[in-house]
Amino acid sequence: MIDLRKLEHLGVTSSSEDGDIHNNDAFFFLENCPAHRYEAIITDPPYEIGIAGKDWDCKKLRIDVLAYQFHRVLKPSGNVFVFCSDFQFGDWYRELSRYFTKLRKFAWCKTDSVGFNKGMFQESFELGLHVCSEDSYFGTEKRKNYVVSGKTSGKERLMPDPDEKWSTKKGEKSLHPTQKSLEVIESLVTSLSKEGDTIFDPFSGTGTLGVAAKTLGRRFEMVEYGFRYHIAAWDRILGKE
Ligand SMILES: C[S@@+](CC[C@H](N)C(=O)[O-])C[C@H]1O[C@@H](n2cnc3c(N)ncnc32)[C@H](O)[C@@H]1O
Question: Where are stretches of biased composition, namely Basic and acidic residues (predicted)?
């Protein structure tokens, strides 16, 4: 029997009635994606800061191309939300403002931040950007542009499988260094989409967006080129992890 976990599977799709994960390159997928397909895009692309030494976070991200493609594949009354690093925020704002009339910064305020640099404020929130058009859906009473929640930890945090050599790097405790809090993603899904909508995440990592979408009665479409993250996300969506 072929062990799917031990091979690279560019082009493989995991499908269910709740949604799909494509093992693919986000740019290739977007180029081939039909226009006006999604009601919302909620995504957490690479930050370009080499987080935890990961190759995928070191490359130059073509934010201009992503902004164009996000607008193209989004339905006209849809919403886009991107998490980004401090360095990228201006680029995302500038590029998305070519296509969207409404733009608002957003913060995930972490209640349990640790670490201290003498003479500086403690780093305790992550930046995001919400953009949309004049008639876009906004489905919540919550109007503040921040959400307060702890970091992803405890049972929610995915750990590498100790029996799988491929999944464990020495010294690496969690499976994915930037797994987002389910509480945060659920709050974005509720605000930016309706039940039955399809939400897209082209940089899905451990599939937090898919888990939130399924729980809240939305469909998901996700793209991730790291096959071990794809598998972990799929196990998580099926409730196996
Ligand atoms: C910041 S992480 C997303 C983490 C996710 N929000 C979660 O909760 O697990 C970005 C992900 O994008 C993937 N990635 C980077 N470049 C990609 C590309 N060109 N195509 C597809 N996936 C890519 C990386 O492997 C990484 O898992």
Answer: 153-175
